[in-house]
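Subject: design request, 219 residues
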């Protein structure tokens, strides 16, 4: 049985979405970001990314982590590649070429897109989006993302999806990274295929179920 350590309001959302796509049973162990707590090491603090019990699972002190039949894995996007490979089906690569494309686009999301996109969502999360510093961070990150939007726009003209002519784990991995930039509507208006693709990804029942759980967590 798969255990996911994390909270929905974190990169663990990718793995919660993926588990629902695959329709596999999973257990969720809530581990919150230490930065959200005043004193993460106090005796009554909820289990968090600085708790010794969690550091025993992931010494980096980052969520998500998963445990699957004794195997511990970190790194949200790699976890999804593993789950796709393990459980097969339409989301997984059917050929070695698809495997190459899925891995390549996932690495691209992690290295070329996420470092900029995460700055945007964190500015909103930290409620600094309307401050001069926040606006500067968002403007710089949006500028840095223009090329990635243009590259994905061109790629989507091939299949309508990222790595194959159907929704795969590559779409899921990229969609969760591009979601971080959703407040920047100009980026999406300049890339209509990206806009339509993200809407399609987010119309999937598994995504909606994940987001409903995420909203409940915020209550
Ligand atoms: N590359 C890692 C990044 C994980 C990461 O940065 N997680 C954040 C939450 S989304 C975290 O645990 N931060 C610790 C904290 O804020 O205290 C992954 O994709 O899994």
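Subject: RE: design request

Done. Sequence follows.
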């Amino acid at each position: 049985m798969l255990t996911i350590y994390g909270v929905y309001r974190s990169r663990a959302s990718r793995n919660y979405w993926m588990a629902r796509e695959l329709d596999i049973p999973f257990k969720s162990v809530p581990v919150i970001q230490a930065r959200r707590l005043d004193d993460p090491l106090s005796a009554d603090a909820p289990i968090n990314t600085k708790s010794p019990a969690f550091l025993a699972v992931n010494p980096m002190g980052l969520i998500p982590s998963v445990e699957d039949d004794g195997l511990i894995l970190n790194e949200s996007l790699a976890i999804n590649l593993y789950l796709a490979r393990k459980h097969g089906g339409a989301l997984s690569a059917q050929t070695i070429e698809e495997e190459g494309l899925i891995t390549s686009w996932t690495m691209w999301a992690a290295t070329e897109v996420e470092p900029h996109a995460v700055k945007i969502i964190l500015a909103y999360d930290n409620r600094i989006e309307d401050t001069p510093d926040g606006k500067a961070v968002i403007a710089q990150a949006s500028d840095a993302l223009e090329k990635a939007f243009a590259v994905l726009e061109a790629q989507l003209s091939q299949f309508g999806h990222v790595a194959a002519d159907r929704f795969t784990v590559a779409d899921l991995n990229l969609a969760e990274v591009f979601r971080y930039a959703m407040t920047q509507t100009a980026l999406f208006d300049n890339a209509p295929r990206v806009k339509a693709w993200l809407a399609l990804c987010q119309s999937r029942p598994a995504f909606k179920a994940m987001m409903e759980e995420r909203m409940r967590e915020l209550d």
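The CA atoms of residues 142 and 184 lie 7 Å apart.
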